[in-house]
Amino acid sequence: MSTVATTDKKLVVVLGAGVVGLSSALKILDEGYDVTIVADIFPSDPKTIKYTSHWAGAHHVSLAGDDQRQDKMDQETFLTMWEMSKPGGEAEKCFMRLPQVEYYQEERANILALKHMPDFRVLKADKLTHGSKCGVSFTTVTIDSPVYLNYLLSRFLARGGRVQRGFVQHVSQAIDGAFTPLRKPDAVVVCTGIGTRSLGGVEDKDVFPIRGQTVLLRAPWITFGRTLSSLDGLWTYIIPRRSGDVIVGGIKEENDWYPHARPEVTADILDRALRLCPELSPSYSGGSSPSATPGVDDVKSIIIEEGCGLRPARKGGIRLEAEVHLTEMGNKAPVVYNYGHGGYGYQSSWGSASLALSMLNESLKKA
Ligand SMILES: Cc1cc2nc3c(=O)[nH]c(=O)nc-3n(C[C@H](O)[C@H](O)[C@H](O)COP(=O)(O)OP(=O)(O)OC[C@H]3O[C@@H](n4cnc5c(N)ncnc54)[C@H](O)[C@@H]3O)c2cc1C
């Protein structure tokens, strides 16, 4: 951890070191700015409820639907991740390219929403299992979240970025140079996820948690992704990682701040996951009859971890805006906001970082 040296380049402080802060910081650094990330939690820290990015699956299955801004961000991110995951590339080990099937128990008006994905197909009637009315298949990437976050941080540091650990009580502390003592920043970018609800100077009460809970299994034989969207609004998903671990989930509980995994939810997730994907069980030998479906006891030996995270949702979607802040000390700087990514922070990370960078460039031109 270090402070900023004197230089001609403009200095940008990015608040937050989750997937959104790290991706934004890298984009801004590559544009030619000096960048310092200030955060209270970093990727190499133990997992905590205060840092959502550790808990994500994560896969790239866009939920943008008819939201064109979101769709553009998600598509840009997919192309970036596809390139990063190419065989032999330096980030290859963070990703797994794999076939994905999405089953929907409800009718979908826009069944072609993901038609830009490689190998996209609408499922034929004879493939509609698990009570689904429709479904699609395509090729996508999954992201090994902890590995990827550490990769982003090391790439940022290797390119000359700086990091400073600190809890920011008010955005004016950053503008007044509290975290960069040699120089006040020319701009601040806010990527504080769920923390934005209580960050002084922003305190966005449109930000709220959608709690997710997952189980991490050791099942290297699973090499496909599968999701079931049920009529009751639940998702059941199977997300394998390159390492051989598999995340299964999930739930989405709005405004539930409970910070620990609930045992009865873990049991329900495993039960649903095994019905959707009996192949998870090491002893599964095929067949779709109820007696062939494994039970929770059959996977106990491969459970690595139970966990939960707070998706940083926001009424109105991701906040991508810029405004000028004047502090009590008389210091003025543009502040760019990039937070509120809900359940899609990975799959929109590079696209939202590009928009944040454009707003930063514009704001600094005017300043
Ligand atoms: C179970 C689960 C599954 C998910 N699956 C997927 C998926 O498959 N695909 C997908 O795209 N997304 C998925 N998500 C969503 C994704 O994880 C989030 O959208 C994303 O992690 C949000 O990242 P973030 O950087 O905004 O926030 P965070 O990761 O929470 O990072 C916030 C950063 O801000 C810092 N911070 C906050 N307040 C302050 C402060 N006052 N002072 C200093 N630092 C501060 C924190 O320390 C941290 O560094 C999932 C989430 C969950 C919980």
Give me some keywords for this one.
single chain, 367 residues, alpha/beta, Rossmann fold, nine-stranded mixed beta sheet, 6 helices, 27% strand, disordered N terminus, binds flavin-adenine dinucleotide
How would you briefly describe this protein structure?
22% of the residues lie in helices and 27% in strands. It is an alpha/beta fold and 367 residues long.
Identify the bound ligands. Answer: flavin-adenine dinucleotide
Low-confidence stretches: 1-5
DSSP strand (E) fraction?
Answer: 25-35%
Total beta strands: 15
Architecture per CATH nomenclature, i.e. the level-2 architecture: 3-Layer(aba) Sandwich
How many DSSP H or I helices?
6
Compressed to H and E, one letter per element, the order equals: EHEHEEEHEHEEEEEEHEEEH
Q: Tell me the span between the first and last alpha carbons.
A: 29 Å
Number of domains: 1
The CATH superfamily is known as: NAD(P)-binding Rossmann-like Domain
CATH class: Alpha Beta
Indicate the multimeric state. single chain
Q: Report the major sheet.
A: 9 strands, mixed
Task: Describe this entry's structure for a reader.
- The structure is a single chain.
- The chain is of the alpha/beta class and 367 residues long.
- The protein is built from six helices and 15 strands.
- The protein has one domain (11-366): 3-Layer(aba) Sandwich (Rossmann fold).
- A hairpin with a 4-residue loop joins strand 10 and strand 11.
- Helix 1 (19-30) runs parallel beside helix 3 (145-158) and helix 2 packs across helix 6.
- The structure holds flavin-adenine dinucleotide.
- Flavin-adenine dinucleotide binds at residues 15-21, 39-41, 50-53, 55-59, 167-168, 191-195, 199, 212, 214, 249-250, 309, 311-312, 339, 341-347.
